Each structure stands twice: as structure tokens, then as C-alpha cells.
Amino acid sequence: MLTQEELKQKVARAALDYVLPLLAPDVVIGIGTGSTANLFIDGLAAHKHLFKGAVSSSERSSARLTALGIHVFDLNQIDRVPVYIDGADEIDAGLNMIKGGGGALTREKIVASVADRFVCIVDESKLVPCLGKFPLPIEVIPMAIAEVSRRVARFGGTAALRQGFTTDNGCQILDVSGLRIESPAELEAQINNIAGVVTCGLFAIAGADVALLSTQQGVQTLY
Ligand code: 5RP
């Protein structure tokens, strides 16, 4: 029986195999945030001579990439990102996701939106029939915390301020529990439309293009 850590290592390796044929001297790849993305970064470092560099979804990932000798570009310097590799907190069979457990959801959504392909790398514990058991993170401008909390209560959720945490963008995170998300793209649009919300951690209007799912039986590819 493989542990969750071993499943993450296997999917990070599968992501590397997925990306290696895409690497070329002019290629910049998109890198996400979290423990699974970290394992991918560590594996990618051995191939740093094959590509130009990376754009990253967090200061943490940028620091890790830089420490391993992979050049990190400002996204404004880059006009093409062939692939974005990142984990998720939950994913369903339609490749809709909840992300932002690490608080990097906004930059993750920005880098993913630039990339030609979002490849989500997860262990099997993240695959769910319906999103919402994992509390939905929402990045909020600090002065709007109370009002956004009241608004999300109308969707049936209870918002809790993530204590002692400030995002890379100087904002705060509300973690919303108690949601059963039957229509993820619709809810994503509704929450993102609340004044003061930077973005919510639903990735459904644009979900993953591919998911690499690490199971006890091996890594499966979902489209
Ligand atoms: C960070 C994220 C991560 O992708 C998500 O939290 C999964 O993390 P991990 O790979 O550590 O389980 O969205 O904001």
C-alpha cells in the first residue's frame, strides 16, 4: 500500500515524463504551488539545461525554483506558456477543481489562464464525486472580509478567516465550508462577482485540460 507521499512522488514523476517532450531552449513552463508541485520542481531541476525557465504561481515556488537554478520570469515578460503543472485540493470527473489550500489561488489562476494546457497532478484522495467537502478558499481585499462572509452565507457556506496568513498579493483568505457545489462554473462566476473578491478557488470556468491521477494501481490520465 503506497502512502500519500509516495503517490505524490509517482504523479510528480509522471508529470515530468509528460513535460520532457515539450522542453526546448525557448520554452518557459508554468509551475504551481504546494507539496505535489514541489516534488515536480525538484525533478525538473535535473533537466534545467533543456528549457529557458519558468513562470511561477507563488513566491514560495519561485524561491524553490531559483534555489535549484531554474530562472523565474515575470509573467509580463512572457507571451507563451505551453504547459502549466499544478496540484489541487479537490478535482471531479469533469476536471473542475478546488484550489488554494496553499493560498496561491489567484496567481495560480492567472498563470493557468496564460498556459496552453493545465495539467493537474493529484493523488487519488483528491478525486471527489462533488466539489465542496474541502473548504473553498476565496482571496479577498481586507476591507471586504465581513461583507464577503455575509454574501457567501447566501450560498449556504460558512466563511472562516484564515488566521495569520497574508497572500502574496497582500490580501486575506476566507475558507468557506459547508458548500455542496453542484454547478461549479456558475458558483465560480457568482462568487467572483462579489465586490472585494479577488478570485475564488474554483477552477471550473476554465478547469484542467488533463489530470494525472496517482492511484494504488498506477498513474491514470483523465481528460
Ligand atoms: C495551493 C494549491 C495546491 O495546488 C493545493 O493546495 C494542493 O496542494 P498539495 O499538492 O500540497 O496537496 O492550490 O494554493
UniProtKB/TrEMBL annotation:
GO terms for biological process: D-ribose metabolic process; pentose-phosphate shunt, non-oxidative branch. GO terms for cellular component: cytosol. It is an enzyme of class 5 (isomerase). Pathway: Carbohydrate degradation; pentose phosphate pathway; D-ribose 5-phosphate from D-ribulose 5-phosphate (non-oxidative stage): step 1/1. InterPro entries: NagB/RpiA_transferase-like, Ribose5P_isomerase_typA_subgr, Ribose5P_isomerase_type_A. It comes from the Bacteria. Catalyzes the reversible conversion of ribose-5-phosphate to ribulose 5-phosphate. Pfam families: Rib_5-P_isom_A (PF06026). GO terms for molecular function: ribose-5-phosphate isomerase activity. The active site is at 108 (proton acceptor). This is Ribose-5-phosphate isomerase A. Belongs to the ribose 5-phosphate isomerase family. Substrate binds at residues 33-36, 86-89, 99-102, 126. Homodimer. Its EC number is 5.3.1.6. The gene is rpiA. Keywords: Isomerase. It catalyses: aldehydo-D-ribose 5-phosphate = D-ribulose 5-phosphate.
